[in-house]
Write a structure and sequence with these properties.
Layout: H1 3-13, H2 23-60, E1 72-73, E2 75-76, E3 97-98, E4 107-112, E5 118-122, E6 128-131, H3 141-144, E7 152-154, E8 160-166, E9 179-185, E10 191-195, E11 202-209, E12 216-222, E13 225-226, E14 231-232, E15 237-242, E16 250-254, E17 261-263, E18 269-273, E19 275-279, E20 291-294, E21 300-304, E22 310-315, E23 318-325, E24 334-335, E25 346-347, H4 358-389
Parallel strand pairs: 1-25, 2-23, 3-6
Antiparallel strand pairs: 4-5, 4-24, 5-6, 7-8, 8-9, 9-10, 11-12, 12-15, 13-14, 15-16, 17-18, 18-19, 20-21, 21-22, 22-23
């Protein structure tokens, strides 16, 4: 018997495999189901991660209060340093900084950050507005550092904001720089300009409103040199006042532009330079020299430097705290005292929600990607176990 015959005999006796006609189609369908399951799992994880990224910023930090009532917050929060980032040309980098002051409406409090950025807190909702004020001295920060913090001042009605300006135009190197005070209406955007000339320009250091918001007073220093990169002064400082509705300041020389200063509703300016001095028809009131405004009952609101800085008012029980201040909200803060009724001077507002930092966003994205990879590996393991069990 040949090998061929033996193989034929074995083949004839071998059982016949009965393979159903739909075996291939069933296997193909099973593969498609596995792939669909894997894709659906990945999509579900991606949706979950995307939803978490969108949900967390608005829920970790409470939203701004939604109310129509006007009031001064009982706590003022510092603005993160990342919001003060500047371009190479000195402009503000963040989209949250706006040149439209009308986004504020009525203001409750205002100050300048350590980086020279004006902040105004809305009185109706507690929203924090970062303003790019035209020609604000803080925009020329390399020069303004010689002044201390650049100056802004919120009027008692919360509607008007005064700030120091300096215009560095094409003639700045050869002509005096136009300087002075501008007052902007935060509800309409209308602007009033009061020039304060002097030598190469006068650097305004302090601005104060009278309790009724009709008069302005200021101190400053005329500069012997002032460019976009440097400044220098010699000689006396100046004290000034601006009558209601006027666009010309009344100015006189004083010895020190850092002396405490105030102005009353009659235009009486008092300042302290060794002793209390008075310019105008009134008489000295030492309380006015340390106040940031007055309640409607006449009590001065004062800045108190303590373990936690605060604005306070004297009551029968002693000094009462009205508004606590985060570090970074300094003694230059001004508040709309017309919105502080003596019985309930402040209102509660939640902490503002700031955009995430690049580091925080990168970590969140990285954790999301890691979660997707882990989920994919887990689904792959489940599919393999499912197929092996069958």
């Amino acid at each position: 018997m040949t090998l061929h015959d033996e193989l034929q005999r074995i083949a004839d006796r071998a059982p016949v495999a009965d393979v159903p006609d739909d075996t291939w189609s069933r296997a193909r369908d099973a593969h498609r189901r596995n792939v669909a399951l894997l894709v659906a799992g990945i999509a579900a994880v991606l949706a979950l991660v995307a939803g978490a990224v969108a949900w967390v910023p608005g829920h970790v930090d409470p939203p701004v209060a939604d109310t129509d009532s006007l009031g001064v917050p009982d706590h003022l929060y510092a603005v993160p340093e990342r919001m003060e980032a500047r371009d190479n040309d000195g402009g503000w980098m963040r989209d949250e900084v706006t040149d439209d002051p009308t986004v504020v409406g009525i203001g409750a409090a205002a100050w300048v950050t350590n980086g020279g950025l004006p902040v105004v807190v809305g009185a109706s909702d507690g929203a924090y507005h970062l303003l790019d004020l035209p020609d604000f001295v803080g925009n020329n920060w390399s020069s303004a550092v010689g002044l201390g913090a650049p100056t802004i001042a919120l009027a008692p009605d919360g509607r008007h904001l005064a700030y120091s300006y300096a215009v560095f135009g094409p003639d700045a190197a050869t002509a005096p720089i136009p300087t002075g005070i501008r007052v902007v209406d935060l509800t309409t955007g209308a602007r009033r300009e009061i020039p304060v000339p002097g030598k190469e320009g006068t650097a305004i250091r302090q601005i104060e409103w009278s309790p009724d918001g009709s008069w302005l007073a200021f101190t400053g220093t005329p500069q012997d040199t002032w460019t976009e990169m440097s400044m220098g002064s010699r000689g006396p400082a100046v004290l000034g006042r601006i009558p209601p509705g006027r666009e010309r300041a009344q100015v006189r020389d004083i010895g020190n532009d850092q002396a405490p200063m105030s102005v009353d509703d009659r235009g009486t300016v008092q300042w302290q330079n060794g002793k209390i001095h008075v310019w105008g028809p009134g008489s000295p009131d030492p309380d006015d020299l340390e106040s940031v405004g007055h309640l409607s009952d006449g009590r001065p609101v004062v800045f108190v430097e303590d373990t936690v800085d605060f604005l306070g008012v004297w009551s029968e029980d002693g000094l009462r705290s009205l508004t606590t201040l985060d570090p970074g909200v300094g003694s230059d803060v001004t508040v709309a005292t017309d919105l502080m009724p003596p019985e309930h001077p402040t209102v509660e507002r939640p902490e503002p929600s700031w955009p995430w930092s690049e580091e925080r966003l990168s970590i969140t994205i990285g954790l999301g990607v890691a979660a997707v990879i882990a989920a994919c590996l887990g689904l792959r393991w489940v599919v393999r176990r499912y197929r092996s069990a069958r």
